[in-house]
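Late entry, written up from scratch paper. The run itself happened at the end of the previous shift, but nothing got recorded in the book at the time, so transcribing now.
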Amino acid sequence: MTKEQPNVALADKNVSNVAYLKAKLKDEYGKQNSNPRLRMVLVIFFVFLIVIIFRLVLLMLWQHNFYLALSSGSREFYSQLYPKRGSILFQDSRTKEEFPLALNKDYFLLYADTREIKDNQTAEQVVQKLTEIFNYNDEKKVTVLAQLNKRTDPYEPLEKKIAESVYEKIKSLNLPGVNFVRLAYRYYPEGELGAPIIGFLGKDKDDNNIGSYGVEGYWQNELAGKGGFMTGSKTAVGSLAHLANWSFNKAEDGADILLTIDRTLEFKACNTLKKAQEEYGAVSASLIMLEPSTGAIRAMCSFPSFDPNDYGQVTSANVYNNNTIFAPYEPGSVFKPLVMAVAINEGVVKPETTFVDTGSREGFCQTPIKNAMGRSYGLQNMSGVLENSINTGMVFVVEKLGKNKLIDYIKNFGFGTKEGIELDTEVSGKIDTLNQKKGDKIDCYAATASFGQGITATPLQLVTAFGAIANGGQLMKPYIIDEMRFADGHIEKTKPQEVREVITNRSSLLTRSLMVNVIDKGHSTLAAVKGYYVGGKTGTAQIPGPGGYTEETIHTFVGLAPIDNPKFVLLVKFEKPQRLWADGTAAPIFGEIAKFALQYYQIPPSR
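Output as recorded:
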């Protein structure tokens, strides 16, 4: 074979070797590709790659200015702009004068630059001066002294939320190493008054301000506003370089909220209720005053309560709950006027309709339905049924009405659903027991619902339902926000909203007249207000427990005045008071507050 002739055999061999290697690699790749673990690794790798690409796009496009400023060192800056949180206001519902309930107030944070405290003697002198102002005990003195003796810490916080008067006093002492930072805090000038309504401003897990409970929680976004930022460049000497890569996104302050709550009525009602709770030894107490013509809430109280300026000092987080919207319960006999109004509206009974009470009704529940104290009243008309609060009489009424009509009207009055009040933590009562058996025949649940057992409702639901009786039959949506005032000058005014007509005006008038007789002739004489026609109804409801009803009770009184054109509906409730009947607890408190409210609104006596 000459030099010019190719080695054909060798070339063929090389070609075959290459083909062999390709085939081998393909075979190996096929084996690896069939490995499920390898496929899983590849999937994870591609997902990770996609996440990185998405993050890069986010940083480069949407957050470009922010990270550009951070990466530019001392020549450029980024400044976050914080919005001002909106205020919450009470009002005088007569004059429309306004009063701050929640606002922002500057306080001071006291800290020490321990590098300026040269020795232990100086530290002890500083501690002694601070003790004279803050009344430190021995343990606190030791703690503060240890903080001051760190010597190398430029920022050692000592006291938070110091009032300006205290700040001025400490500042005048010229204590070495003691410095201040001015900070804005949420301030509630009325203290405990209105606390269950407004809630409080707390902290989230990232130490950011966040509203909790009440108005602060429900309207967190509107009150907080929106933050902004500013980026730009600095000159070599640190001053701002004008027109150099400026970017500005203005902060938007939070909205101010004007409540429908009348400050004077709130003060009178809540103070009266709190004193009564203590006197009666009740576990809790709550109250709502509603304007029936509009649905506006003029007073709302819930005890035990708290001071939102120091909300952490409570024995239980349950204290934060507003029981007027959070605690459904079996209302008992205060439910009777609502059922009576329904029956009158359907024409199945009239005020003069009579029945004979034997004191007991059988055939509905496993045990006979009886009246309180086992009493029997003989021949009675419908007015007498309410005056004497006769359970068996109400069973007679729902027999005439029918179960389906009863359920329809209970729903139309708003029971079983939330009212939609603009406050955090509202819950709805339950009426689903009424649907356990089909058909129109009165069963045990329908029979007991006629006098407020076996179903639950919140005080808000009850006072709203009675508002329909007070105003001529219209169920109004209750509301507590009068105005929302935004930073751009826009104002959203709440307009009264009619939900539906539940009963006719005639049925409303007839039911109100029966409720006047309850106070004039029945068990609720202590709810009367001299010179006025006032209507109402007591309820002393046993609290259900395992195996049946317990001996503990909840006392309620719902009333309206003046009866011809009610200015307000007022509900008073006590949980587990150390007295037997609501006519000796809730009724007289209603009378005291109703008298004040009638005089406050300058409604002349008509009796």
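Confidence is low (pLDDT under 50) at residues 1-15, 68-75.
(Scratch paper discarded after transcription.)
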